TrEMBL record:
<feature type="domain" description="LicD/FKTN/FKRP nucleotidyltransferase">
    <location>
        <begin position="598"/>
        <end position="638"/>
    </location>
</feature>
<keyword id="KW-0812">Transmembrane</keyword>
<dbReference type="Pfam" id="PF04991">
    <property type="entry name" value="LicD"/>
</dbReference>
<keyword id="KW-0472">Membrane</keyword>
<feature type="transmembrane region" description="Helical">
    <location>
        <begin position="32"/>
        <end position="54"/>
    </location>
</feature>
<feature type="transmembrane region" description="Helical">
    <location>
        <begin position="6"/>
        <end position="25"/>
    </location>
</feature>
<keyword id="KW-1133">Transmembrane helix</keyword>
<dbReference type="InterPro" id="IPR000612">
    <property type="entry name" value="PMP3"/>
</dbReference>
<comment type="similarity">
    <text>Belongs to the UPF0057 (PMP3) family.</text>
</comment>
<protein>
    <recommendedName>
        <fullName>LicD/FKTN/FKRP nucleotidyltransferase domain-containing protein</fullName>
    </recommendedName>
</protein>
<feature type="domain" description="LicD/FKTN/FKRP nucleotidyltransferase">
    <location>
        <begin position="471"/>
        <end position="585"/>
    </location>
</feature>
<dbReference type="GO" id="GO:0016020">
    <property type="term" value="C:membrane"/>
</dbReference>
<dbReference type="GO" id="GO:0009100">
    <property type="term" value="P:glycoprotein metabolic process"/>
</dbReference>
<dbReference type="Pfam" id="PF01679">
    <property type="entry name" value="Pmp3"/>
</dbReference>
<dbReference type="InterPro" id="IPR007074">
    <property type="entry name" value="LicD/FKTN/FKRP_NTP_transf"/>
</dbReference>
<dbReference type="InterPro" id="IPR009644">
    <property type="entry name" value="FKTN/MNN4/W02B3.4-1"/>
</dbReference>
Length: 788
C-alpha cells in the first residue's frame, strides 16, 4: 500500500526529532531546527506544495531555509503556524482537536447489579454510559430485533453528581426547599414546585421510579419556579428535577460522520446499574463478574457497531437537499429552491389535522373496546407512535388558546445578577433543567481564559451537531440573526455572542416536531461525547406575534451545559408586514396570490425572494445554508452591522479574519494616536486596526499564544470564506479586499449562474472540529494543562 504524505512526514519526524535536544544544547535555535525540517520536506514532491483547499493537520506551509529574523513578515506568519502543527503535545495542545483519553478503567464489582442495592450515590462518566449502550445496541441488532428498546435514566447521561453532597448525608441533615427559596429574588408563583423529602408520597416515588426517599437529595423539583436564583441553587434545582420528576426522551439518535444514524426507542426509567445492560456487556464480551478490572472504550464499541450493522440512511428528502449535498458533480448547484407552499401553514391545516387524528383515535378506540370489531392488522395501521400522540395533543391544546392567552413554554435558568458572584449573566441562554453553571461565572480552579475556551467549545460543537443531524435527516434550516452577521465577516461565530439562531420553513418545523420532538441526539463518538435534546413548543402551530415569550418554536439543547440553539419557524400569518413590503403585497394580490411575506413570532419579516434560494456555505468548518439576500436581511436588522469594525471592545482584523479584543492589540499603537481624555476613541482605533500591516500581525502572533492558536485553527476556513465572498459580493481587490471595501451583493442571477461558485461550494464538507470535545476539555485537558 503506498504511503500518504502525512505517513511520510510522520516517518521523517520519527527519525529527526530525537536530535532536537542535541541541536539546542549546541546553541542552535528552535527556528533553525524547524527550518531544517521544512527544507527536508521541501524536497519531497507534493508534501507542502500541492495543498487542497483545506489541508490536513500534518501539512506544513513552505518557507525559505533562513534564520527566523531573516524571513519576510509573510514567511514569519507561516513559520508561527508551522510551530503549532509540530508542537502537538506541548503548549499548543489546544490546536489539536482529535479525540483522546476515551478509555476508562473500572472495577467490575463496583457496577454489578447486586452491589448497587441500597446505594443512593450517583456515578457519571459518559465513556461508561456510551460503551454499555453501544454494546447493547449492537447485540440487540445482531439478535434480529427490528426495533431496539432500552431503559434510560438522566443520571447516566447528565452529570448529577453535584447532588451526592446531599445524598451522602442522613436525610434529616440534607438541604430542603427552604434553602433553595432563600436565594429567589421573589417568591415563586408555582405552588409545590419543590417538595421536601418528608412530603414525598408513595405515589411520588412511583412516578420518580425511586425506591425510597433516601434516593432524593432533600428536595424534589417538579418544574421550574420561573424566578431568579443564585448560580448554585439553579443548578441544584435542574439536577434534582432530572433525578426525580423529569420524563425520559422518546428515542436516541446516534450520528455517524460517514452518513446514516442508529436509532433506538427509550422505555422505562432505569439506571444502567439497575438494569441488565452491564451484565449483558460482561456476558457478550466473555468477562467474568469476578474479574477485577476492565477497560471500557466507547470509540471501539462504536466502530464495532459500524462494522456489524449498517447505519440507517434517511428515506425522507422532500426538497432534494440530501441528494444535492451528496452529488459528485462539481458544477452542480447546491442551492435550494423551496416552494412557497413550505411557508404556508394556517388554521385550515390545523383543523384538518385535528379532524383526521380525531377520526383515527375514534377508530382505534372502537377496535380495542368492541370485540366484534377487533382486528390486529387494522390496529397496526392506525396505531399512534408516542411522537404522534404528543403532536396530536399539542395540536388540540394549542388550538384552545388565542395568541394573548398562551402559556409560556420554554423556561430558562434565570439568575440573580449585578452582584459579586455574577455581574451580568441573567441566565437567558440556558435551559433550566440542564443548567450546569453560567458560562462566564468564575468557578473555583478556573481562569477567565479557560471559561472563554469552554464557551467556544460548546457553541462550535452545538452548531456542528445540529447541522450534522439536520443535513443527515433532510431538515431544511439556515442560520439567522447574529450568526448570519458573523458569517458575513469571517465565516465564524462571533467571540462575543452566546446565541445561535436557526430558521426553517414552518412546514419543515411541523414535520420536525412530529418526528423528532423529545429525541436525544448523540455526537459521532469518534469526534466527542456531545449529547443534545430536541424540545419543540406546544405552540408551534401559532404563527402570529407571541405575547407570552413564545418567540422560539424549538430548541436543540446541549444537556451538559443547558446552552441551546434557538429554532424558529418562518411562515405566513395575519400580522401586518412592514411598509417596505407594500409593493410586493399589492403585486401578489393582483396575481390572486397569498402575500409572500413571512415572519417568525418575534416577529421578524422576510419576503420569499429574500430567503430563497438558500445558499450552501460553511461556517466554522460546518456545511450549512444561508438565505439568498443576505445584505438586505442584515441591513434591516443591524443598521451598522456590515460596516462597524468594533463591538463591545472587540475589533475586526482583516489580515487575521478574526475579532480581537482591543486589550490584546493596543500595544501595537502609540497611545496618543487613539486616546482622547484617556479614553479609547473608537473611530481613531478603528482606523489604526483597518491599516494593520503584516509586520503588525507577526508582532501579534509572537505576543499572544491564544490569538496564534485561534488563527491556526481558523485560517484555512476564513481564507476560503473570503474567496467565497468574491463570488457573492463586489470585492474591489478580490480575496485581498478588506470587509469595509465591499460594495454590495451581486444579483441572484449572477451568483446562481457562476460555475466557479458552484465548483467552490461543491468542496464544502465537515472539517475537523475546531475545538476539543467538551467532556475532554472540562474533565481531562483543562485540569492537565491548567496554569496555577
Amino acid at each position: 500500500m503506498p504511503f500518504t504524505c502525512s505517513d511520510i512526514i510522520k516517518i521523517i519526524f520519527a527519525i529527526i526529532l530525537p536530535p532536537l535536544g542535541v541541536f539546542l544544547e549546541r546553541g542552535c535555535s528552535s527556528s533553525f531546527f524547524l527550518n531544517i525540517i521544512l527544507t527536508i520536506l521541501g524536497y519531497i514532491p507534493g508534501i507542502i506544495h500541492a495543498f487542497p483547499i483545506i489541508h490536513s493537520d500534518d501539512d506544513l506551509y513552505p518557507i525559505p531555509n533562513l534564520p527566523y529574523d531573516k524571513l519576510t513578515s509573510v514567511d514569519k506568519i507561516l513559520y508561527k503556524l508551522n510551530e503549532v502543527t509540530i508542537n502537538k503535545d506541548g503548549k499548543y495542545w489546544l490546536g489539536h482537536t482529535e479525540l483522546t483519553d476515551y478509555e476508562i478503567e473500572i472495577n467490575v464489582s463496583e457496577f454489578l447489579q447486586e452491589n448497587w442495592v441500597g446505594q443512593n450515590l450517583l456515578f457519571y462518566d459518559p465513556r461508561f454510559t456510551l460503551s454499555i449502550y453501544l454494546s447493547e445496541i449492537k447485540n440487540q441488532y445482531q439478535q434480529g430485533n427490528k426495533e431496539v428498546v432500552l431503559p434510560f435514566s438522566w443520571s447516566d447521561w447528565v452529570d448529577l453528581t453535584k447532588l451526592n453532597e446531599e445524598l451522602a448525608k442522613p436525610e434529616s441533615q440534607r438541604k430542603g426547599c427552604a434553602y433553595l427559596k432563600q436565594t429567589h429574588h421573589i417568591p415563586t408563583k408555582i405552588k409545590n414546585y419543590c417538595i421536601d423529602n418528608n412530603q414525598i408520597t408513595d405515589s411520588d416515588l412511583k412516578e420518580m421510579k425511586l425506591p425510597n426517599t433516601n434516593y432524593v437529595p432533600g428536595f424534589a423539583i417538579r418544574q421550574s419556579p420561573t424566578n431568579k436564583a443564585s448560580n448554585e441553587v439553579r443548578m441544584l434545582e435542574g439536577k434534582s428535577h432530572l433525578l426525580t420528576y423529569a420524563k425520559n426522551p422518546y428515542s436516541i439518535i446516534w450520528l455517524n460522520k460517514n452518513g446514516g444514524t442508529y436509532e433506538v426507542k427509550i422505555d422505562e426509567k432505569q439506571k444502567i446499574v439497575d438494569s441488565e445492560m452491564f451484565n449483558n456487556y460482561l456476558k457478550n464480551n466473555k468477562i467474568k463478574p469476578n474479574q477485577e478490572k476492565i477497560v471500557l472504550n466507547p470509540v471501539k464499541e462504536f466502530r464495532e457497531l459500524l462494522s456489524a450493522i449498517k447505519p440507517k440512511v434517511s428515506e425522507s428528502d422532500e426538497f432534494g437537499m440530501i441528494e444535492k449535498l451528496k452529488s459528485p458533480n462539481p458544477t452542480e448547484s447546491r442551492e435550494l429552491f423551496i416552494p412557497e407552499s413550505a411557508f404556508n401553514y394556517q388554521q385550515d391545516k390545523i383543523d384538518s389535522q385535528i379532524k383526521e387524528y380525531d377520526i383515527r383515535m375514534a377508530k382505534l378506540k372502537d377496535l380495542t373496546t368492541n370485540e366484534l370489531n377487533f382486528d390486529l392488522s387494522t390496529i397496526e395501521q392506525l396505531k399512534f407512535t408516542r411522537n404522534e400522540k404528543l403532536y396530536y395533543e399539542s395540536l388540540k391544546y394549542a388550538n384552545r388558546f388565542p395568541l394573548k392567552k398562551e402559556q409560556t413554554y420554554f423556561r430558562m435558568a434565570r439568575l440573580n445578577f449585578g452582584n459579586e458572584e455574577n455581574d451580568h449573566d441573567a441566565g437567558w441562554h440556558y435551559e433550566w433543567r440542564f443548567f450546569n453553571g453560567a458560562l462566564r461565572y468564575l468557578k473555583t480552579g478556573w481562569s477567565n481564559d479557560e471559561l472563554l475556551i469552554r464557551e467556544k467549545v460548546l457553541l462550535d460543537r452545538i452548531l456542528r451537531n445540529w447541522f450534522r443531524f439536520a443535513n443527515e435527516k433532510g431538515i431544511i434550516s439556515w442560520i439567522a440573526h447574529g450568526p448570519l452577521l458573523s458569517w458575513y465577516w469571517d465565516g465564524l461565530l462571533f467571540p462575543f455572542d452566546e446565541d445561535i439562531d436557526i430558521q426553517m420553513p414552518i412546514e419543515q418545523l411541523i414535520n420536525f416536531s412530529k418526528n423528532y420532538n423529545q429525541t436525544l441526539v448523540i455526537e459521532d463518538i469518534t469526534e466527542g461525547f456531545g449529547k443534545y435534546f430536541i424540545e419543540c413548543s406546544t405552540f408551534i402551530h401559532h404563527r402570529g406575534k407571541s405575547y407570552k415569550e413564545n418567540h422560539i418554536d424549538a430548541r436543540f439543547i446541549d444537556i451538559d451545559t443547558g446552552s441551546y440553539i434557538d429554532i424558529t419557524g418562518i411562515g405566513l400569518s395575519n400580522e401586518e408586514a412592514p411598509e417596505r413590503y407594500n409593493e410586493l403585497i399589492i403585486q401578489n394580490e393582483s396575481e390572486s396570490k397569498l402575500p409572500q411575506v413571512y415572519n417568525c413570532r418575534y416577529p421578524h419579516f422576510y419576503s420569499y425572494e429574500e430567503i430563497i434560494p438558500l445558499r450552501f456555505t460553511m461556517m466554522g468548518g460546518v456545511p450549512l445554508y444561508v438565505p439568498n439576500q443576505i445584505e438586505t436581511i442584515l441591513k434591516q436588522e443591524y443598521v451598522k452591522g456590515l460596516t462597524s469594525y468594533d463591538y463591545e471592545g472587540f475589533y475586526f482584523i482583516d489580515k487575521l479574519n478574526l475579532w480581537i479584543h482591543y486589550s490584546k492589540i493596543e500595544f501595537l499603537f502609540k497611545k496618543e494616536d487613539y486616546l482622547i481624555d484617556n479614553n479609547v476613541n473608537v473611530e481613531k482605533f478603528t482606523s489604526l486596526v483597518q491599516n494593520i500591516t503584516n509586520d503588525d500581525i507577526v508582532r501579534i502572533l509572537e505576543n499572544d499564544e491564544d490569538i496564534l492558536l485561534e488563527y491556526y485553527l481558523t485560517k484555512q476556513v476564513t481564507d476560503l470564506h473570503k474567496i467565497e465572498l468574491t463570488h457573492m459580493f463586489n470585492l474591489p481587490n478580490g480575496k485581498d479586499s478588506r470587509i469595509c471595501d465591499i460594495h454590495g451583493m451581486k444579483s441572484q442571477q449572477d451568483i446562481s449562474s457562476n460555475i466557479e461558485y458552484h465548483k467552490l461550494t461543491s468542496q464544502f464538507n465537515f472539517q475537523k472540529p475546531f475545538r476539543r470535545s467538551l467532556f475532554n476539555y472540562e474533565m481531562i485537558d483543562r485540569p492537565r494543562h491548567h496554569k496555577h
